[in-house]
Amino acid sequence: MFDKYGPKWLVIPGFVIVSVMLWFFTTLSPASSVAFMVALHIGLSIGTALILMPAQTNALNQLPPDPHGTAVINTLPQVTGAIGIAVAVSILMGGMEKYLHGSSAPAKQVEMANAMSAGSQNVFLYMIILALIGLVTAFFIRRVVGSREEVHAQH
Asked: Quick count: other Cβ atoms within 10 Å of Cβ 119?
């Protein structure tokens, strides 16, 4: 599909799928079924695959065939993932604290579960904002088609 349609027409639906799945994640509560959560996770994984593989392939197609581009592509997700997890945990804890601050019995297990749900919903809303930013930027992706002959001619 990447070769036939290019990266943009895979990345855009990927971001739409991710955004919709994240929206449904904001509706989760302690009473949500495991099957619903698994279905959402499967949808999220499909959307993520539609984003990452075409975007990375297109990015690498723009580079000469040396190992530096691959090293950057392999390092960036690790660094941004660590930053993203730190931000997400901070948002989660802030949402939990806010919920528990207004609770009459914050030590009860039910209230802790509700606090985790409230904090998680905040994290998913944050992730939706990031996904929508990604969706907007996806409209600016240009397909790069370069042959090995062109790369060797430049050197």
From this structure: 22
Among the residues of 6-155, which ranges form H helices? 8-25, 34-61, 67-101, 109-138, 148-154
Sign of the alpha-carbon torsion through 39, 41, 47, 53: negative
Instruction: pLDDT band for 2, please (50, 70, 90 cuts).
Output: confident
- Phi and psi (nearest 5°) for 146? -130, 140
- 139 pLDDT more than 50: yes
Please enumerate in sequence order all residues whose Cβ is within 8 A of that of 144, keeping only pairs 6 or more positions apart, or say none: 58, 61, 62
- Phi and psi dihedrals of 67, rounded to 5? -75, -10
Q: What is the DSSP letter of 1?
A: -
- For residue 48, count other CB atoms closer than 10 A to its CB: 15
pTM score: 0.85
Query: For 85-108, how does the pLDDT look when each residue is reduced to its tens digit (9 = 90+)?
Result: 999 999 999 999 999 999 888 889
